[in-house]
Amino acid sequence: MALIAPSLLAADFGRLREEVASVEAAGADWIHLDIMDGHFVPNLTIGPEVVAALRPYTQLPFDVHLMLEKPEDFIIPFARAGADWISVHAEACTHLHRVINQIREAGCRPAVALNPATSLRALDYILEDVDMVLLMTVNPGFGGQSFIPSMVAKIRDLAGMVKNRGKEILIEVDGGINAENAAAVCRAGAGVLVAGSAVFGSADRRAALQALRKAALQGARERPAASACPAYEKGDG
Ligand code: DX5
Ligand code: ZN
């Protein structure tokens, strides 16, 4: 079973503590936090203080997605705020290898994020140093956008690259994920599904998470053996 990470970008920002509790109670695996600076992406969201303020109210891992220029300046503040995972965009890092090392040295799990049009070749000399790759399946900056269908082939290609390296590296997909496309992305090799609108836009968060899980499980079962990644599967249906 894939991991489901509801994105707080689609939550009610006036009630973040309750929103986190509601998706934890509904069965979420991680909390995805979108950090935007108004430069790398044309939108602004929250900083480390808000992440730290939420940290006492959930046991779930915090999956912090930095959509920032100069993310190296913010690794320590987000690690101190309680991030478990930190994703940085390859497009935003002049010294990507150094930033990935900074994340690990700060005690967090490092991930590299790629925009939809960025080639997987950007991962050639960094894949072995990360624990996860975040593939954007919309252009970053806003929730509620439509999934870009050509990203299914990119997920499949990345799953092949990961398998060839022989190291366990999670594939996270982010943007426009819902119960209609969750099977396709999991069939292609995704192991972590970020979902904002599909979870927080639903009055019944438990039902929304269950629908995503059911579709993800179906996709994972249909995954060709050549790209199967059993280590990523929870197996609890
Ligand atoms: C977009 C963010 C995503 C987004 C997902 O820049 O990285 O995490 O909030 O939201 P939905 O699921 O609504 O596309
Ligand atoms: Zn995100």
Structure commentary:
By secondary structure, the protein is an alpha/beta fold. 32% of the residues lie in helices and 17% in strands. The protein is built from 8 helices and 8 strands, in the order E-H-E-H-E-H-E-H-E-E-H-E-H-E-H-H. It has helices at 16-25, 48-54, 75-81, 96-105, 151-165, 182-188, 197-200, 205-221, and strands spanning 3-6, 31-36, 62-67, 85-89, 109-114, 132-136, 170-174, 192-195. The protein has an 8-stranded parallel β-sheet with strand order 1-8-7-6-5-4-3-2. Helix 6 packs parallel to helix 8 (205-221). The protein is globular, with a radius of gyration of 16 Å. The protein starts with a strand and ends in a 16-residue tail after the last helix. The structure holds D-xylitol-5-phosphate and zinc ion. Zinc ion (ZN) binds at residues 7, 32, 34, 65, 174, 194.
Put simply, the count of helices is 8
Low-confidence stretches: 230-237
Q: How far is the N terminus from the C terminus?
A: 6 Å
> Beta fraction of the residues?
15-25%
> Biggest β-sheet, characterized?
8 strands, parallel
Residue-averaged pLDDT, rounded?
95
> How are the strands ordered across the major sheet?
1-8-7-6-5-4-3-2
Number of strands: 8
Rounded to an integer in angstroms, the radius of gyration calculated over CA atoms is 16 Å
| Unique bound compounds | D-xylitol-5-phosphate, zinc ion
Helix content: 25-40%
Q: Which sequence of SSEs, written as H and E, runs from N to C?
A: EHEHEHEHEEHEHEHH
Structural class: alpha/beta
Globular, elongated, flat, extended or rod-shaped: what is the shape?
Answer: globular
